[in-house]
Amino acid sequence: RAAVAVAVAAAAVETTRHKVDYDHGGVEDVSLVRLSAAAKVGVAAEAAGGAAAVAVSAGAPPQLVELTFPRFFVWQGDRVVVRDAASGDLIATLSGEAKAKDECGVAGCAGYLTWPPLVAPAGFSFVFESDHFDEAVYVPPGAEPSRFSAAGFLASLRLAPGCSTDKSCGPGGVCRPESGLCECGVGRSGADCSYASCLGVRTLHGASGVLASSARALEPRERYVNDAVCGWRLAAGEETGRGRGFLRLSIEYDVEPSFDFVEVYDGSGTQHAQLSGAGGPVLLTIPVDGGAPLIRFTSDGAGRRSGFRASYEFTAAACDTHADCSGRGACVRGLCACEPGTHGLSCDSKYCLAYNPPA
After folding, report:
1. Distance CA 294, CA 317 (A)
2. What letter would DSSP give residue 358?
3. Residue 297, exposed/middle/buried by CB under 10 A (0-12, 13-18, 19+)?
4. Which residues are bridge partners to 175 per DSSP?
5. Are 307 and 222 in contact, with CB atoms under 8 Å apart?
6. Is the Cβ–Cβ distance between 121 and 64 less than 8 Å?
7. Distance CA 181, CA 184 (A)
8. Fewer CB near the last or first residue (10 Å), C or N of the chain?
């Protein structure tokens, strides 16, 4: 179990205990703190092995809670997992060394991560996980020892008013006044959309759109972050009245082979593609039967490339023209008739698939 000291300001008005299921299967008691004003929750020390958690909510009636990290230095192999306290949706998985923008000075924050503020309608749950290595004893040659003696993180929380105009939501972002939440532009994340890479799982409601690992994905000098865990839930696939149909995707990708992946799942959780290396545009069509498809991007702790970009569209038919059949089939009455040796709803696979249309 990680050694964690939690400090909560006097503004916290209620503390209870409840259970949280960790991703790795264990169950641990955590503290639930209900806020009436600003409070701070921090890790004072990191120990080898295990996990510790704390949940923070806004009490009743629910209000927006904003989370920032004045201090953040979590070694590779360790991570802070932040979820929406009400829905359990992943908001961010964080590791590395980050600085707050106001402490970078005239030299800027080059070489450092700068985590954006995060916001949730009713609060957050945190899980801090550490591996079985005590990196704090290691100081690289020539490095300042004091920089490595403060490993851990400090999280600052406050009740937040939310966005009011699109200007609050960064390039390409849109403010949703009814919720006070920003809908960020392609490849951006954070409460104010200031972070130019993906974080956590986003829900997209449009029947068509574009998603990407970062705002500059696939540009020659772009590099995505290590230890990324990002997802896009395409909610139009489960909206009332849409019924059965198809999701068409066009994916171009450049990710570290065998270690970083772009994965496509249908609404039932069945995996339809796992892309690694470089390729595309790949045309992919999957069946939709009432659930929300998920696009997932993950990277490990070493090696980075320029990322991926995908466009998507929900349609009533698997194809409209022969071009929708990857150049390896013909569109016949809304379904691709694939050439021998190719399979899939868009003739995109060399392998026989369970969801092939009947010959």
Report:
1. 20
2. P
3. buried
4. 182
5. yes
6. yes
7. 9
8. C
Q: What is the DSSP string of 91-122?
A: EEEE-EEEE-GGGSGGGTTTTSB-PPPEEESS
Burial bucket for residue 244 (CB in 10 Å: 0-12, 13-18, 19+): exposed
Q: Return the structure tokens found at 8.
A: 């909560």
The length of the chain in residues reads 359
Question: How many CB atoms are located within 10 Å of the residue 206 CB?
Answer: 13
Give 257-286 as a DSSP string. Answer: TTTSEEEEE-TTS-EEEEE-SEEEEEEEEE
Query: Of 199, 226, 222, 228, whose CA–CA distance to 306 is shortest?
Result: 222
Q: Are 44 and 21 in contact (CB under 8 A)?
A: no
Sheet holding 294-298, edge to edge: 200-204, 229-234, 294-298, 261-265, 271-275
- CB 151 within 8 Å of CB 136: yes
Q: H helices within the chain, ranges in order?
A: 145-148
CB atoms within 10 A of CB 349: 18
* φ, ψ for residue 102, nearest 5 deg: -75, -5
- The C-alpha atoms of residue 261 and residue 358 are separated, in whole angstroms, by 30
| Predicted confidence (pLDDT) per residue in 54-91, tens digit | 566 555 555 788 999 888 888 777 888 999 988 889 99
DSSP class of residue 324? Answer: G
Mean pLDDT of 321-340: 92
The closest alpha carbon to 223, from 110, 307, 98, 297, belongs to: 307
Mean per-residue pLDDT over the chain, rounded: 77
Report the b/e string of 301-335 with b at 16+ CB within 10 A: eeebbbbbbbbbebbeebbeeeebbbebbebeeeb
Q: What confidence category does residue 173 fall into, taking pLDDT thresholds of 50, 70 and 90?
A: very high
pTM of the model: 0.78
- Going by C-alpha positions, the residue among 205, 222, 206 that lies closest to residue 214 is 222
